[in-house]
């Protein structure tokens, strides 16, 4: 098994890691898009409300821990690790993560204003959190580590030879696609987050500030 994994080509490794980490999400989002765009005359529903329960977040956390373990085991065999992707924590980078979080809030505010005032549209997704505080804290730790490690760090490692613009845009588009079940506004906001995180990561190659910013954003979203 290990010798087979060591002999994988780079494209095979990338496809395998992304399938393990995001295969279910890709399938779910593809089906959702087909149902809501092609079967619904090309339009998102006006407003979609989703209630988030403890069971949903526990399932997500367990899945992400298992997928991360498998992907990192493959990475260990292939010669890369979390350190390779730039995961080092420090108080300095924690503070930077807070600034990245504030920057994303401002971007969200600006995009929300454009959607509402310029495009004369409304937010078409409303998320109501019924989850308990301990579970919210738990998913706000697990999910940012998982998503930033693989949506940003790993995707950049796989595509960086193609240059900054293609890598950043591909990572941001992938992040947006993985959140399309949150509606068009979900795609737009997460694409914008992907651009912000992508340009930051390309410049400094540090995952920890992005994990901190992502965790704060999740806490803000699920607790308000």
Total domain units: 1
Count of strand segments: 2
Q: How is the quaternary structure best described?
A: single chain
The level of helicity is over 70%
- End-to-end Cα distance, whole Å, is 47 Å
Q: Uncertain runs with pLDDT below 50, 5 residues or more?
A: none
- Spatial ordering of strands, largest sheet: 1-2
Please provide the ordered H/E string of secondary-structure elements. HHEHHHEHHHH
What is the residue-averaged pLDDT? 89
Look at the helices and sheets and give the structural class.
mainly alpha
Strand content: under 5%
Summarize, please.
The chain is mainly α. The protein is built from 9 helices and 2 strands. It has one domain (2-223).
Structural description of this entry:
It is built from nine helices and two strands, in the order H-H-E-H-H-H-E-H-H-H-H. The protein has helices at residues 2-6, 10-38, 54-78, 82-85, 91-118, 133-159, 164-177, 183-204, 208-223, and strands at residues 48-52, 125-129. Helix content is 76%, strand content 4%. Helix 3 (54-78) runs parallel beside helix 6 and helix 6 packs antiparallel against helix 9 (208-223). The model has no long low-confidence stretch (mean pLDDT 89). The radius of gyration is 18 Å and the shape is globular. The protein has a two-stranded parallel sheet with strand order 1-2. It has one domain. It is mainly alpha-helical.
């Amino acid at each position: 098994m290990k010798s087979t994994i060591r002999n994988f080509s780079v494209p095979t490794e990338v496809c395998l890691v992304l399938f393990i980490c995001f295969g279910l999400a890709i399938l779910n989002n593809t089906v959702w898009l087909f149902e809501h765009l092609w079967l619904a005359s090309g339009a998102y529903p006006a407003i979609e409300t989703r209630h988030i329960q403890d069971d949903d977040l526990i399932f997500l956390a367990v899945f992400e821990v298992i997928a991360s373990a498998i992907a990192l085991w493959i990475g260990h065999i292939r010669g890369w690790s979390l350190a390779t992707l730039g995961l080092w924590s420090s108080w300095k980078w924690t503070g930077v993560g807070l600034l990245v979080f504030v920057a994303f809030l401002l971007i969200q505010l600006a995009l929300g204003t454009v959607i509402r005032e310029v495009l004369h549209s409304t937010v078409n997704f409303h998320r109501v959190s019924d989850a308990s505080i301990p579970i919210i804290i738990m998913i706000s730790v697990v999910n940012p580590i998982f998503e930033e490690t693989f949506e940003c760090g790993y995707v950049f490692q796989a595509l960086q030879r193609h240059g900054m613009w293609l890598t950043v845009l591909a990572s941001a588009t992938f992040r947006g696609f993985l959140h399309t079940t949150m509606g068009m506004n979900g795609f737009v906001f997460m694409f914008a987050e992907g651009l912000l995180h992508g340009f930051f990561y390309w410049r400094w190659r540090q995952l920890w500030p992005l994990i901190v910013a992502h965790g704060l954003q999740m806490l803000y979203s699920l607790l308000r």
